[in-house]
Methyltransferase (Cucurbita moschata), 613 residues
Amino acid sequence: MGSKHNFPGNKNRGPISLFAVIGLCLFFYILGAWQRSGFGKGDSIAMEITRLSNCNVVKDLNFETHHSIEIIESSEPKKKVFKPCDIKYKDYTPCQEQDRAMRFPRENMIYRERHCPPVDEKLHCLIPAPKGYMTPFPWPKGRDYVHYANVPYKSLTVEKANQHWVEFQGNVFKFPGGGTMFPQGADAYIDELASVIPIADGSIRTALDTGCGVASWGAYLFKRNVLAMSFAPRDNHEAQIQFALERGVPAIIGVLGSIRLPYPSRAFDMAQCSRCLIPWTANDGMYLMEVDRVLRPGGYWILSGPPINWKTYYQTWKRSKKDLNAEQKKIEELAEQLCWEKKYEKGDIAIWRKKDNDKSCKRKKTAKICEANDVEDVWYQKMETCITPFPEVTSDGEVAGGKLKKFPARLFAVPPRISNGLIPEVTAESFEEDNKIWRKHVNVYKKINKLIGSPRYRNVMDMNANLGGFAAAVHSKNAWVMNVVPTIAKNTLGAIYERGLVGMYHDWCEGFSTYPRTYDFIHGNDVFNLYENTCNLEDILLEMDRILRPEGIVILRDGVDVLNKVKKIAAGMRWDVKLMDHEDGPLVPEKIMVAVKQYWVVSSPHNSTSSDE
């Protein structure tokens, strides 16, 4: 049957049209290949062509905060619409829930470790924000103030009132910067540390705070260009890690218990325990040995609190002089076995420095040394009472594992783990190329969303960090990045720390060790391709939604097939989603997905929702 538009004169145009189509195809193929070689003078044309493609329109995504966004139903068919969870789940932490924790032994804090729900017990609903939730204060104001509606728990204001942890003022919490062992403020405490530790010159960049409270130590180290990773258990100190992240400080729910910390060996330049109440001499010093594993050669360990200055505090601590004196002596003996040298003890503070190598160690011959190949295998691995060996050196003055440049030069210097060939298939050349690629990618992100790099997005997560190229490219005083290295990916986390960045290992088939609504910006490169045949993509997306703040953003890079699956799921999660072509053109199979989480809260226990609170 002929079309009513088939006029007789059109019959002669067939060959001409065919040649025209072939010509256009060849043109775009050549253009795409040229674009993949890098941006050149033709960028404006190429970007305009990309902009005009149907899947690359992002101008209707709004990245500003409003707290009054109408929930617009997508015209596309949805496989599943996810309903809000009950309001009782507003602070749900799937792998650290109290009810499940109480089924496990209290010995060695096992019950405070990660205990994730089985697949058939996972929630398949959206974790709600509490009524009145507001976007956190931008940094640096956010360091000192938190909206009460976001973390409505006052217990610490009473329990720690004389230690100046946190104060309640009207509808906000104020954090004066105090702590149990620094009631005069974190700045004064850090000043004393800096009289011994070279904090000011860039030698110290990564720090670990064990049992951190509300993380004021880490919060006040930022202005000294030190990035501190803090952890504490979810316990009777209600919401301490939630407060830390709400302030904009890197932190996770965690504990020194029976399994290893989720960090690589030789990660931190400095670690501290400020009245963290960790029993350092228990289990033959196993916890101190775990700190030693993650402490870099030449790094510092700070202990403020029991048993330091026990002669002054033994009555306050309700412990005998004999007991406290024996505990301190035991710590001194363990430190010597670890090749730590005491550099300072005055008042409430003692500081040790880990030696650069083991050439001058005074260890007992009976000291048990761990197998070198086991120290990087940490995910759900039991801690052992053994000492992590130093990497081998050829001279007394050599730093085991390699000497690092001072920060910020360290950020783009080739990490020693790469230059020493410790990461398979990664070379100095491929590292430099990776940096170039991520600078290019991040420049595109900033064109999509001009707020990237501003205080609007303080807490950033990279779900599959590889060499840390994304974090290095977005580095600024306004933000920090949690670099996650999946447990099924190549182990690159040690190199990330050598760059002066922080992160942790994680399996995305499980819940992350954080509270809901703790990240402003989640980035993922090749995450769903990595996990497509390992676990349910829906579970990963629901976990992303749990930890993403209302009106936070997601940027994903992945293959077009898997991103189409992701987009379909995300469409039922109250996310505004757009799929875009790769910056090198539509012929590249990798695509970009940009999403904004809508603002909504559950206003009553009966799952009624509102988007205009």
Notes: DSSP finds 18 helices and 19 strands in the chain.
